[in-house]
Design the sequence.
């Protein structure tokens, strides 16, 4: 061949576009904007897809937006996610949160907007803890009422009190579980601020039959 270097140069030019394509960022674009349409940097965004048939384990993705209020997230194809963001200061104090966005899928651009309501942490008190002594220790979990439920373990003090974390959608469902395997939940309704969760021990039918500890609202 008379011009081997020319042929080599042509091959490199032909591979140029392909090499650029392989080096392109891979992921789903995500943006967070405030009420004025300005980008929000430093927002920690969680995307959660619960387990379901075909996907035995949940998938949780956590990213933080850059200076331009954007990020790339790697989501699994075929899953539906719930997205929610929370920004804190250097001391961990919640500053601003986003609205909850449901039905997020891989490949579709994600746009989150800040919630006009300030993020709040509500106090919770569980009464009649002595009724649980046969089942101690008990475990409490606050779950969001979103399509894909975010779980937040709770820790009570000696008086049965704790401060709830900021919950996506604001108000959670409270679930109890015990060392004996008993399990109950506070119901489908949201927990209103300032209310007390009152627990008592009652036998109810489960599968397999056992004693469990239901709980209900009490102002």
Sequence:
């Amino acid at each position: 061949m008379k011009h081997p270097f020319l042929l080599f140069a042509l091959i490199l030019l032909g591979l140029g576009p392909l090499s650029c394509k392989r080096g392109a960022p891979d992921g789903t674009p995500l943006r967070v904007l405030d009420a004025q349409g300005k980008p929000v940097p430093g927002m920690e965004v969680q995307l959660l897809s619960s387990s379901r048939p075909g996907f035995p384990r949940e998938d949780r993705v956590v990213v933080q937006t850059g200076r331009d209020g954007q990020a790339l997230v790697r989501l699994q194809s075929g899953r539906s996610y719930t997205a929610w963001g929370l920004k804190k200061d250097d001391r961990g104090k919640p500053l601003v949160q986003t609205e909850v966005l449901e039905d997020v899928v891989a490949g579709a651009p994600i746009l989150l907007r800040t919630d006009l309501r300030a993020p709040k942490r509500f106090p919770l008190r569980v009464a009649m803890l002595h009724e649980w002594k046969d089942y101690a220790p008990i475990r409490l979990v606050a779950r969001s009422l979103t399509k894909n439920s975010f779980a937040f373990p709770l820790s009570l003090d000696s008086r049965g009190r704790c401060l709830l974390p900021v919950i996506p959608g604001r108000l959670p469902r409270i679930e109890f579980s015990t060392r004996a395997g008993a399990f109950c939940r506070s119901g489908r309704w949201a927990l209103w601020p300032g209310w007390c969760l009152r627990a008592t021990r009652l036998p109810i039918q489960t599968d397999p039959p056992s004693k469990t500890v239901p709980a209900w609202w009490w102002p």
User: Anything to note?
Assistant: Residues 4-22 form the longest helix (19 residues). Residues 123-218 form one domain. The chain has a mean pLDDT of 76.
